[in-house]
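quick one if you have a minute, typing this from the bus. theres a chain ive been looking at and ive put its sequence and its fold in token form underneath. please have a look and point out which stretches look like helix strand or loop to you. anything you notice is useful, everything is just below.

***
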Amino acid sequence: MKIVVTSLFVEDQAKALEFYTKKLGFVKKHDVPTGEYRWITLVSPDEQNGTELLLEPNVHPAAKEYQKRISSEGIPATMFGVADIHEEYKQLVENGVKFTMEPTKMGDVTIAVFDDTCGNLIQIIQQ
């Protein structure tokens, strides 16, 4: 068994698609109308056949509450791996991404956290 799709709740699918492709550099893999919403998945430009990130609308009250609570507690909704966190941090800041935590060494890893403007905190990690 392997992970093929993982979901991330977002407040606005169009805004999230713009942020994740233009600011972070992910590639849109699927964008299929599903009634009022869309099935939008993204992949890493380096692994276009890898795990897909689904931009899931947070329309269900439980999803809204979950997203609001973890964000308000400073808990990242997901984590992305990077090869060089300091270079990635610099590029993202230049792209206008707002960080809530600069690159910080924690044991054998270095992490940083940013706001995706769609209701989530996202952690990047260099292992």
Q: What stands out?
A: The chain has one domain: 5-126. The first helix runs from residue 13 to 23.
